[in-house]
Amino acid sequence: MQYLMVLRVLGLLLMVFGATFVPPMAVGWLMGDDNLQPFAIGFLFTVSLGALLFLTTRHIRREMKLRDGLLVVVTFWVVLGLIGSIPIYLQPGLGLSFSQAVFESVSGITTTGATVITGLDQLPASLLFYRQQLQWLGGLGILVLVVAFLPLLGVGGMQFYTAETTGPIKDNRLSGRISETAKALWLVYIGITVLCTLLYKIQGMSWFDAIAHAFSTVSTGGFSTHDASFGYFESLSLEVTAIVFMLLGIIPMTLHYLAVRQISWKVYLGSAEFRFFLGWLTAVLLVVTGVLLLETPQESWWNDLRGLVFNLVSFATTTGYTTADHTALPGLITALIVSTAIIGGCAGSTTGGMKTVRIMLLARQGINELRRLVHPHGVFTLDLNGRALDISVISAVWAFFAAFVFIFMAIMFAMMATGLDFYSAYGATVATLAGLGPGLGSVSGSFAEVHTSALWIGMVAMILGRLEIFTVLVLFLPMFWRR
């Protein structure tokens, strides 16, 4: 393990992240905020710490190995959550504990969307913008952004890219150079965000709300600048726009890039994973609509259906926006739409959850096992978009599924040990591990009232979910630290 090289790269990353404190200060200054000192302190501390780490190791120039990259990724996300909490903790009048401030920061950067803050409508613009910006940076992955410029600094980026991107198949580069792939993905990400911002503005949002909500829509993060979340705007056209861009958020950025490059929407339909997502989402929509028709008075059916469709898409994409109280729906509907977040969107997208491709491959493998009962000597293979998959990919998918279920159960029981009832503990686990944000029961709105230990359990769950479990768990293997 090359610890000095790890520290050098961490120093570079912290200096880059320190620059992200500047935009909230600029927004606060333009919006007339009285106190921008928390962001100035955060900027100075982060840049100084990063410079210290980098300057003391600046002469260390070695090729980083995979283990070094994994250690950098996990360490950086943990440090990011801690340092990102500085402006939140120091914000005057907010009154959050250190644990609550770190929880809010980790929730933002992992695009989870769970919050401990209430009274959003009265908060300074700088803090509101900062929360949204955290989600946008974490959506595609701030390390993917840094990878685009690492060659200029003499550091390879493949280790970071493979450790941070989601899904069972990591080699999805658009070009031979990983830095070029990272640049292409971020250009697409920025382009979608700008388009979302303009449409929000045209349909009645202020520039501030339009930019802020575009950040959290495209990143499928779900933070809002208002306590009523997206329901604050009471606009059907805005809700439809949000649905479209949340669905765009579940699609891999590589597919967006190819669609733009080829000027063809058929690229999307060529993805078996995207078709599978649309299929199961449609099936769930039909089920919950049927339940709604049976259990809802006819005079309120349209408004309930409108809110149901929005919440379903929001939860299935792990965004977490709401336009109505999801816990006011019939119990079966509430439990079902919250549970959709466990599956999540496509691999390589900004969403959380297990990822649709894994569920699709598990379903196909299950069908093959049934076929073997009929034809014991038959040979059945799995393919993805016409490409035959190696048995190692299937093994990795099963291993991830088993690990996810085990971790899910462990976190849920740990949440119950902090005093949450079963219903709330289940909701809290989905909210944090799957990156949904809103939960069930006592955490359906916020985590403001839960025990401090539940907050730290939630933070661990959020990082595990964002880095897809194995990237973190591998650090606990003794063989990882051996020479």
Keywords, separated by commas or semicolons:
2 strands, globular, 1% strand, two-stranded antiparallel ribbon, mainly alpha, 483 residues, 62% helix
List the helices and strands and how they pair.
Blueprint: H1 3-18, H2 22-31, H3 37-56, H4 66-83, H5 86-89, H6 98-109, H7 125-140, H8 142-147, H9 158-164, H10 178-202, H11 207-218, H12 236-249, H13 253-262, H14 266-269, H15 272-295, H16 301-316, H17 331-339, H18 356-374, E1 383-384, E2 387-388, H19 391-417, H20 422-433, H21 452-466, H22 470-473
Antiparallel strand pairs: 1-2
Helix pairs in contact: 1-3, 1-4, 2-7, 4-6, 4-9, 6-7, 6-21, 7-11, 10-11, 10-12, 10-13, 15-16, 15-17, 18-19, 19-20, 19-21, 20-21
How does the overall form come out from the CA principal axes? globular
**What is the end-to-end distance?**
7 Å
Number of helices: 22
Secondary structure tally: strands:
2
Radius of gyration: 22 Å
Widest sheet, order of strands: 1-2
**What portion of the residues fall into strands of 2 or more residues?**
under 5%
Helix content: 55-70%
* Topology as a string of helices (H) and strands (E): HHHHHHHHHHHHHHHHHHEEHHHH
Mean pLDDT, to the nearest integer, reads: 88
What does the oligomeric state look like here?
A: single chain
| Unreliable sequence segments | 151-161
Overall structural class, as computed from helix and strand content, comes to: mainly alpha
For the sheet with most strands, the description reads: 2 strands, antiparallel
